[in-house]
Amino acid sequence: MRPSCVVICRIHLGQGQTVPHSATELADYDHVRQWAMQSLFQHMDDIYQGTVIVDAQARIIWINARYAERFGFADPQSALGQPVENVIPNSQMREVLRTGEPMLLDIMATGDDQLVVTRLPLKDATGRTVGAVGFALFDKIQSLAPLVAKFTRLAEELAATRESLAQARRAKYSFEHFVGDSPLISEVKRQARLAAPLEGAVLLLGETGTGKEVLAHAIHAASPRAGKPLVSLNMAAIPDTLLEAELFGASAGAYTGADKKGRSGKLQLADGGTLFLDEIGDMP
């Protein structure tokens, strides 16, 4: 607690500081740096409507009245000592403490509103993170309307893409779609239903067009893994040089044309669900 208090006392007051003017004073690096940091904090506190400071355990040790009131605390003192998440539900201050890295610009959702926030770690003379300070902009957010609009649009697109991907990885067929009532078809369905709850692999044999894919989807839909992904992979269409990357993934730049950010393999994508290896008899 003492290192946190020292840091807070140095940067919070920001008053009575001596502005360097002479060449000698400007050459005093430590003095200029301290003055600049105090001035920066004062400006940030003036520009942003909300300011909160936490200690190394992510407990609030200072919060301004306006920010506290926004989260239902009429008296800022009542928020002191509480874990920051108890006061600011979606706070990422604990992550700043964990990494020791700043979050210079972020958008935090609070109910129906969005706040533009900046989070900075506070460190002692040895470089150890002893706390963090966060600034929030809410009433003046109109000045950042283009940024907020872009963030909102990207968030909506990401949600839509995830939903679309989830839909694509769900079973499209059930046993009702496997048409036929002959003794052979009935036996196939019976065995498939017996296999559905099992954890082992299931080998489906049959000519092209006989419904192996429909049966694979039906087995997944009837299994305890139905809520997890069903990932399909056409083994006959994959060159042998890319087979390993398709199954196990690849790091960035692992081969010519590889994704710059790397890619997950089908085994990882199907984790907890079902991996359907189509045309496995024709794999390279």
TrEMBL record:
InterPro entries associated with the record: P-loop_NTPase (IPR027417), PAS (IPR000014), PAS-like_dom_sf (IPR035965), PAS_4 (IPR013656), Sigma_54_int (IPR002078), Sigma_54_int_dom_ATP-bd_1 (IPR025662), Sigma_54_int_dom_ATP-bd_2 (IPR025943)
One GO BP: regulation of DNA-templated transcription
Protein known as: AAA family ATPase
Domain (Sigma-54 factor interaction) ranges: 178-284
Pfam families: PAS_4, Sigma54_activat
Residue stretches in coiled coil: none
Keywords from the UniProt entry: ATP-binding, Nucleotide-binding
MF term (GO), any: ATP binding
